[in-house]
Design goal:
The chain is mostly helical. The chain is built from 3 helices and no strands. It has helices spanning 12-24, 47-50, 61-69.
């Protein structure tokens, strides 16, 4: 969809806040990063039908190590 503006965009003040937060975390302006979200089991009435969504965060460590090895932030 070249030439079309993004559907969602940060306000200028939110973008400035995000850049400052990333800088504080040590993420350089030109560096890409990955946010990893892993759902653990929760106590819920329907957990038995939702358990396929669960994972062990430890299973993502090899991928995180590879990204750091390539010079990126995780």
């Amino acid at each position: 969809m070249a030439g079309r503006p993004p559907i969602l965009a940060l306000r200028a003040e939110d973008e400035a806040w995000a850049k400052a937060a990333l800088d504080e975390l040590g993420v350089k302006a030109d560096q890409w990063f990955v946010c990893i979200h892993v759902r653990e089991g929760i106590l819920a009435l329907n957990e038995s039908i939702q358990s396929h969504r669960n994972a062990d965060i430890a299973m993502t460590i090899p991928a995180m190590k590879e990204m750091v090895h390539r010079g990126e932030c995780v």
